[in-house]
Amino acid sequence: MSNFYPLSRIELLNRGAGVGTLEARATNSDICGGSMDKRQQARSMARASFSLLSADKELLWVPGISIVSGLGVMALFLYPLTLTDNGPFRLIMLFLLLVAMTFVGLLCNSAIICAVRDRMDGEDPNIAGAFSEAWEKKSHIFQWALVSATVSLIIRAIQERTGLLGAILGF
Questions:
Q1: Phi and psi torsions of 44, nearest 5°
Q2: Alpha carbon separation from 97 to 65, 100, 160 (Å, rounded)
Q3: Sign (positive/negative) of CA torsion 106, 112, 114, 116?
Q4: d(CA 116, CA 137)
Q5: pTM, whole model, 2 decimals?
Q6: What is the C-alpha to C-alpha distance for residues 56 and 46, in angstroms, rounded to an integer?
Q7: What are phi and psi of 19, to 5 degrees?
Q8: Contact residues for 146 (Cβ-Cβ < 8 A; gap 6+)
Q9: DSSP-assigned beta bridge partners for residue 92
Q10: Which residues make Cβ contacts (< 8 Å) with residue 14, sequence separation at least 6?
Q11: How confident is the model over 25-75, as pLDDT tens digits?
Q12: Which residues, including other chains, have CB under 8 Å from residue 139's CB and lie 6 or more apart?
C-alpha cells in the first residue's frame, strides 16, 4: 500500500455540487521518479482543471474582469503620464502603474483560487463570493504586488546593464 501526498492529490468531491469525482493522485514512487512521468501528471492536472471548469463555467468571466479592470487602471494612469516629461514624477507614475496592474492581476488570480478551493470543499462558488473573499486579503495582495513590482524593476535594470548575466537572471 503506497502513501499519498495530500497536496499532490486533486480530488473534486461530489457533495451535492454536481461535479462528480475526478482524482489525479501522485504516490511517493511517482514523485520520486516512479511510474508517472511529467506528461501523465500534466494530463491528470489538465483533466481535473477541465472538469472543474465544466462545473463552473462562470469562472471564465474572471479573466475578462481582469482585462477590463487592467484597462481601467491603465486609463487612469495614461492621462497624467501624457502631461509629464521624463522627470521623476513620470517614473513614480510608471512604478505606481506597475504596482496597480500587478495588484489587479493578483486579485483576480486570488479570486480564482478562492473559487476553486470552495469547489473542492464541495461548495458552489460564484464570482461575487470569490472576489469578496479575495478582497478580504487585499492588504496582503497589495504587499505582494509591491514586492513583485519592485523585484521586476530590479531584474529589468540588471538585464539592461549586465548583458549575458542579466539575460540569464531575467530568464
A1: -65, -45
A2: 18, 5, 21
A3: negative
A4: 16
A5: 0.69
A6: 15
A7: -95, -40
A8: 99
A9: none
A10: 20, 21, 122
A11: 444 444 445 556 788 888 888 888 777 777 777 888 888 899 999 999 999
A12: none
